[in-house]
Every structure is written in C-alpha cells, then in structure tokens.
Specification:
Layout (H helix, E strand, L loop, with lengths): L19 E3 L3 E2 L4 E3 L11 E3 L24 H4 L3 E9 L2 E9 L6 E9 L11 E6 L9 E3 L6 E7 L2 E2 L5 E2 L8 E9 L22 E9 L2 H14 L5 E2 L5 E2 L10 E3 L3 E2 L11 E3 L4 E3 L1
Antiparallel strand pairs: 1-5, 2-14, 3-4, 5-6, 6-10, 7-8, 7-9, 7-13, 11-12, 13-14, 15-18, 16-17, 19-20
Length: about 280
C-alpha cells in the first residue's frame, strides 16, 4: 500500500510532549478511476484500479457500499477528520476522529514509514508498512456508523511491522509516517495485511480512502540520518528496466532483479533477488 500525498503537516516530538495533531484528512484518489476512465464529477461511479485477476488487467471491479450499490466520487470526497499521536513508555498512542466515511463501512488503518526526505513519487524512501497497533491487525479496524462517523484509539508498540520494516516505541523517531485508512467493500478484514495474502492480487480487496501525514523536525532527523549512513549501508533503489540491479543492499549489492522498480530492502539470506509485486511498486525481497 503506497499513497501519493501532498500538503504534509506535523512537527517533531519527544515523550511527554502534548499530542501532535494533523487536523485534516487527505483524500486518496490515486488508485481509483471512473467507469469512463476520468474522475471529473461528483457523480462518477468508482472503479478500483487494481484488477482482481492479474491476467485480465483491463477488467476492473466497481467500488461498492456495504449494501452493494456503486459508490460515487462525491461520497468518497465527504471524508474529514483529525488524528493525534503522543509517545510514552509503552509506544505511540494514536487517536482518530473521523466523519464522512462510507456509512456502515468497514475500515482498517495502516502505518507507512518514510526515511528522510520523506515521500517521493518513486517511493525511494519508503522503509516500512504494517497494521497500526499490534502486528496481528487485531486493533486497527473500525466500522463507521450509519452517519459515517467512527473513532479509533490504539497504542503502537516498538518492533517489527506486520508487512516489513520496524519502528521504535516513538513514531516520531521516524522522519515521516502516514496513517492510511483502507475501506473494505467486502466488509472483511485480514489481520496483518490489508487483503488476503494468498489471493492473486490482495489489493483489489480494499481501497485507500484517506490519510494523515506526520513529519518530524528536519534538522534532528538529518543528523540522525547522517549517523546511520556512516554506521551501516542503507537500502538503495532498484532501477527499472529489464536488467536492473539493487544498489546499496548490505548482503547482495549486485543482485539482478529484472523488472523490479521501487524500494529495495534487506531480506532473507539468499544469493538471488526476487520481485514481489506490491500495490504501487515492486519490492526486492
């Protein structure tokens, strides 16, 4: 799950500071389209850009409400809300207050981590993703009321994220993190991943609806990044193309990955590099 966003808000924090708030939810429309291919009217019926059958990429599914009727861009655009985060000894306490959701809709909240300089269109600095809260996904779901309102309060602990990457007990130790709300038209949740991990394309089981973006103090995070870069190799980019190679991987600096565009990360101790198609890019494992 990768989200293209603009309008980053936030500031640095330490344990004991007041909660930091991002008052505005950002609408995410990068991964939906209209039946006619152009989102230009509130009345447009929504289609998920992720095909459920990878062998039939032109066959897209409509995005539906819990009662099965097609959703419109106007309904999706009604979302609003605020988020707050505060660090303590047990982790980062995150609260969400949301309105304008799909009435009676099932949602899950996902944590995305970016190193300095934060989100970029090539996702070069995307270093972690997982369920908000416990890694089993047991605390990251919510159901909107009939009026489209919902709230969530959860503490995110230190440790490995449910999909990849890891965090400390304070999310503000990261340069930038996103809280992303995924809407599930099927009314189901899937634990540590936003869709069924064994599906041909699990990403057709949800639609990113909104996000909150927090970014930490730039000078402090630059200093941290400089310390890290001098003490250990950092994950690098996989170039695109038919014979791209990973750059900067500690164990496998020369692995060939074929058409593997996106972010490289250290994976199993193997001598080769295989590509796994993820929602907005391909990652080397």
């Amino acid at each position: 799950m990768i989200v293209a966003l603009t309008g980053i808000l936030g500031a640095g924090a330490v344990q004991g500071d007041p909660p930091l708030r991002n008052m505005d939810a950002v609408l995410v429309t990068d991964f939906i389209t209209a039946a006619d291919g152009t989102l230009d009217s509130p009345d447009d019926l929504l289609m998920d850009r992720d095909p459920c059958d990878p062998e039939r990429p032109d066959v897209l599914e409509p995005v539906t409400a819990p009662d099965g009727r097609p959703l419109t861009l106007g309904e999706l655009s009604a979302v609003s809300g605020k988020a707050s985060a505060k660090c303590d000894k047990q982790g980062t306490h995150v609260t969400l207050q949301l309105a304008g959701l799909i009435p009676n809709g099932v949602y899950t909240i996902w944590l995305l981590i970016f190193e300095l300089p934060g989100f970029t269109p090539d996702f070069a600095h995307f270093i972690g993703e997982g369920s908000l809260g416990p890694g089993d996904g047991s605390r990251n779901s919510l159901v909107a009321s009939a009026e489209g309102r919902a709230a969530l309060s959860v503490r995110h602990p230190a440790g490995a994220l449910s999909e990849f990457g890891e965090v400390t007990n304070c999310l503000f130790d990261e340069f930038e993190f996103h809280l992303v709300g995924a809407y599930h038209p099927d009314g189901l949740t899937y634990g540590p991943t936003p869709g069924p991990a064994d599906a041909p394309n699990m990403f057709c089981y949800f639609v990113e609806h909104f996000a909150f973006v927090f970014q930490s103090d730039v000078p402090e995070r630059m200093h941290k990044a400089e310390r890290v870069s001098t003490s250990a190799p950092s994950a690098g980019l996989c170039g695109s193309g038919s014979d791209a190679s990973c750059i900067g991987l500690p164990e496998r600096s020369g692995c060939t990955v074929g058409r593997c565009g996106g972010v490289c990360k250290a994976g199993p101790q193997t001598t080769d590099c295989s590509c796994v198609i993820r929602k907005r890019s391909r990652f080397c494992l």
